[in-house]
Write a structure and sequence with these properties.
Structural class: mainly alpha
Largest sheet: none
Number of helices: 5
Number of strands: 0
Number of domains: 2
Strand content: under 5%
Bound molecules: zinc ion
Radius of gyration: 28 Å
Distance between the termini: 54 Å
Shape: elongated
Length: about 190
């Protein structure tokens, strides 16, 4: 006994590829209760579906905010790196030609590389990177003060600007880390 061949284009419910998730546009099966890709409640009430969209938008905003804060922290470190390099070159150019000035330039470029490295690292560990940069900066200022107490007064404006920048970077990094932790708490 031959079953009647199907005439229409109606594939079985689980074979359907026409259905799409309203949230992520992934193909879903007609008997899926929720989207296997993003968890959207396909069979949920309209309240549940609206709540899902609200939570998703919230999550996205937080995620963008976190990335923005990480970027600020990274920028802070790259700015410090650039300032160290520029200041080292300026000092080299205005100093009398001696071996001391070559050493000074080398030291400033080394510090510039260190800050650039921390900037690169801050994309993964923003708090650790920015706090390291702050500690290094304070140690360098202390060394400069021990070397010559007048050093601290000489560049006081640029030092205040750099410190404000660093504190801003630390706050951004801490904010980013807090949001990241929230994501882990409720994924
Ligand atoms: Zn989905």
């Amino acid at each position: 006994m031959n079953p009647e061949p199907r005439t229409g284009d109606s594939p079985g419910p689980t074979m359907s590829t026409d259905l799409e998730c309203a949230s992520c546009d992934s193909p879903v099966a007609a008997d899926d209760i929720e989207c296997p890709h993003c968890g959207y409640p396909l069979k949920g009430s309209s309240e549940a579906q609206e709540k899902f969209f609200r939570d998703r938008d919230n999550w996205l905003l937080n995620f963008q905010d976190m990335n923005r804060k990480v970027r600020i922290a990274t920028q802070t470190l790259y700015v410090l790196s650039g300032l160290s390099a520029i200041w080292g070159i300026v000092l080299y150019c205005i100093s009398p030609a001696n071996t001391q000035r070559a050493f000074t330039l080398f030291a400033y470029l080394l510090v510039a590389c260190m800050y650039a490295g921390l900037g690169w690292w801050s994309k993964k560990r923003p708090v650790a990177a920015v706090v390291s940069a702050l500690v290094i900066y304070i140690i360098l200022q202390m060394l400069a003060f021990i070397d010559d107490p007048d050093n601290l007064i000489r560049g006081v404006i640029s030092r205040v600007i750099i410190l404000v920048y660093l504190v801003k970077g630390v706050r951004a990094a801490v904010g980013a880390e807090r949001i990241r932790r929230n994501f882990h708490a409720n994924p």
